[in-house]
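Take a look at my tokenised protein here and describe the backbone shape.
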Amino acid sequence: MIGGAISERRSRAAKLISRWARLSIVCLCVVVLFSVWRSAEWTPERFAGACLIVLGISGWIVAQFQLGDSFSVRPEARALVTHGIYSRIRNPIYVFSVLLLSGVVLYVEKPAWLAFLMILIPVQVIRARREARVLEEKFGEEYRAYRRRTWF
């Protein structure tokens, strides 16, 4: 009994550390990005890119923490998260990662990098559809009602 409680606390701590590690990696990449290109002139495109980066990271972080233990790389139906940002957007991590990467493309002023986004967006849509199937199988009408009142 005590061993199970300790194991559960360690598991929760490991998940929290993993979440903070992902957050730290993303923030570090953004700091490196801004520092590498900091000497360049602030054009309207670069300013718009910086704004999208900040918006993308902020939304991504909020979505990660609101998703909590339900986060997984592969589609799993642990819980139906419908609070916070998930009350409006079904897949905010995908939405905000696209905003973040769009901001990077604008900030570095490399239009050729748009090709990466053109690949990423359909991949995210496919992943979202797979997740939707898994959630619908487990939660049925509750998930269908949630899907009707949210975007993507």
